[in-house]
Design goal:
Layout (H helix, E strand, L loop, with lengths): L1 H16 L8 E8 L2 E8 L4 H7 L9 E3 L11 E5 L1 E12 L3 E6 L7 E5 L4 E12 L2 E14 L4 E6 L8 E10 L2 E16 L4 E8 L5 E7 L9 E7 L8 E6 L5 E3 L6 E4 L2 E3 L6 E3 L3 E7 L2 E9 L13 E4 L6 E5 L2 E5 L10 E6 L15 E3 L5 E7 L14 E7 L5 E5 L9 E2 L3 E3 L2 E3 L1 E7 L10 E7 L6 E4 L13 E2 L3 H4 L3 E6 L2 E6 L5 E3 L6 E6 L1
Parallel strand pairs: 1-4, 6-10
Antiparallel strand pairs: 1-2, 3-4, 5-8, 7-10, 8-9, 11-12, 11-41, 13-14, 14-15, 15-16, 17-18, 18-21, 19-20, 21-22, 23-24, 24-25, 25-26, 27-28, 28-29, 29-30, 31-34, 32-33, 34-35, 35-36, 37-38, 38-39, 39-40
Length: 530
């Protein structure tokens, strides 16, 4: 009997397995939107988008559906629609003006004078508000528009120092606290030229006649977009009105061409986020400056790599007669053909110099200056090392003169240091004819001249009669800089040299070595004298 039941049971299970399963053909889901919920029945395999459409709910582009509209429905699924709305609001926000203080030695200590009244600016701000189901969930500023720039309040504060006035020839300009000042006739007769507080000191140069000052201002744009801008201001007009020359990113060179009324030569760089903050173009351009306005520009040197350490850049120097232009770069010095304007004029090397390996993000460029007769060039060269040091690592630097008439070079002073910065005096009359002096800086520790302080020395143009002038023995030395000679020594009665010491302007008599402090605010950083 049991044997007969086993086949019957097997037949039963086989028949049961062959019976088709009943699949679910419809699903019921809940759709919640605008504060109400509704149940929707849809065929199996439908998506959330189908449920939204069937519930007659209209979606905007900003609405959010959870789960997403492409999701397949399951039994009992709840679909939530969140209404999202954006509103934009415009607000006018006041920009408070800042206060700037100018130290002025022409006023008694503690006395103040308002130079410029402050004025608030106005900033138009557009704000985006986000609402979810009528409740604000966030906001953000999407745009800003400066309707009116704030003007700083500029207050002059007296810091009069007890320095005796000194008669001077020509015009002496100096940069202090980001502003340009001028002295004329006497060191006690000083007045402001530019009071914007943002002069960066890269360029600070008087025209040959002293009528115009060329200078650079820090840019209002981020440094990786624009480093600075080039300006000029008349030293005679009252009040002085700065002129924007429409030129930017000038770091190494911009100067008036001597004897030309008026031509500005300049070179540019490209801003970079990496040190030193620029990539040099090694270019050269001339700008005609007519009737107080920038005019035609001509290209003298097109942008190029600039040789070894060309990323740092090259600089230039005009001969006193304005007929020749010399260049200096880390691997040598030479001349520029300025007559071939409008094309790549090319460079004529005079001397190749072994570049200095600084092991840093800067490059050493040979200091260069013209003799007053425009027939010689004075420069610092990187001389051969002693011992086993490689030529690129040599700590030795010499002051050299090169005659342009016979192409002879003469070493005037050995071991001056890399920042000797020679500067020739105006022509002097003597029994043997015209001559001149050369001022330069002598490193106190010549083999460590990159960090050494310096002293002011002078020498005859032929290399004779070397003597030290400033500062006095035992005093702290000078920071690297170019000495500035007073113009027309015969008119002034003395051969004066302007120098910066401990942040102040000093004047040194080249004949006697006597010196006198002129400013006392400790903020002076550049000078020029024409």
């Amino acid at each position: 009997m049991a044997r007969k039941l086993i086949p019957l049971v097997l037949v039963f299970f086989l028949m049961a397995s062959c019976t088709p399963k009943v699949q679910q053909t419809e699903l019921t889901v809940t759709v919640t939107a605008d504060g109400t919920s509704q149940n929707i029945t849809l065929p199996a395999g439908s998506t959330v988008q189908k449920a939204i459409t069937s519930s007659a709910i209209t979606l905007s582009q900003t609405d959010r559906v959870d789960p997403p509209v492409y999701t397949l429905l399951t039994e009992g699924l709840t679909i939530t629609v969140t209404r999202i709305r954006e509103e934009f609001e415009t607000q006018d926000v006041v920009i408070p003006f800042e206060r700037q203080e100018l130290h002025n030695e022409s006023l008694p200590a503690g006395e103040t004078r308002l130079v410029q009244a402050g004025q608030n600016g106005l900033n138009e701000i557009t704000i985006r508000h986000v609402f979810e189901n009528g409740i604000e969930t966030g906001n953000s500023v999407v745009s800003q528009n400066i309707l009116q720039t704030a003007l700083p309040e500029i207050v002059m504060i007296g810091v009069q120092s007890p320095f005796a006035p000194l008669p001077i020839s020509g015009k002496l300009v100096y940069l202090t606290g980001g502003n340009a000042w001028i002295m004329e006739g006497s060191t006690s007769n000083r007045r402001p030229l530019v009071t914007t507080g943002d002069l960066d000191g890269h360029i600070f140069s008087l025209s040959s006649d002293g009528a115009w000052l060329l200078y650079t201002r820090k840019s209002a744009l981020p440094a990786d977009q624009e480093i600075n801008t080039l300006w000029a201001v008349n030293t005679i007009a009252q009040p002085p009105v700065p002129v924007n020359l429409g030129i930017s990113n000038v770091v190494h060179f911009a100067s008036w061409q001597p004897g030309e009324n008026y031509i500005i030569a300049y070179s540019t760089v490209e801003p970079r986020t990496t040190a030193p903050g620029w990539q040099a173009n090694n270019d050269l351009h001339f700008l005609v400056f007519e009737d107080g306005h920038p005019g035609k520009t001509s290209d003298i040197l097109e942008a190029f790599s600039g040789g070894i350490y060309g990323w740092w850049g090259m600089t230039f120097s005009w001969s006193p007669d304005g007929h020749s232009l010399a260049y200096s770069r880390p691997d040598g010095i030479g001349m520029v053909d300025i007559k071939a304007k409008g094309v790549n004029a090319g460079l004529t090397p005079l001397l190749d110099i072994t570049p200095l390996n600084t092991h840093g993000d800067w490059a050493w460029t040979p200091c260069l200056a013209w003799g007053s007769d425009s027939l010689a060039i004075y420069f610092v060269t990187h001389s051969a090392p002693t011992g086993l040091v490689s030529p690129e690592e040599s700590p030795n630097f010499d002051l050299v003169s090169a005659s342009l008439t016979d192409n002879l070079g003469t070493t005037l002073v050995q071991q001056t240091g890399m920042f000797a910065y020679p500067a020739a005096s105006p022509l002097l009359q003597s029994d043997s004819g015209s001559t001149y002096l050369v001022a330069f800086l002598q490193a106190i520790f010549p083999t460590q001249s990159a960090t050494s302080r310096y002293q002011l020395d002078i020498i005859n143009n032929d290399g004779t009669n070397l003597r030290s002038l400033f500062p006095a023995e035992g005093k702290s030395g000078l920071q690297p800089q170019t000495p500035v000679w007073a113009p027309d020594p015969l008119k002034s009665g003395s051969n004066f040299i302007g120098i910066l010491y401990e942040g102040d302007l000093w004047i040194v008599d080249a004949a006697t070595g006597q010196s006198q402090q002129i400013t006392g605010d400790g903020l002076t950083s550049q000078i020029d004298w024409k």
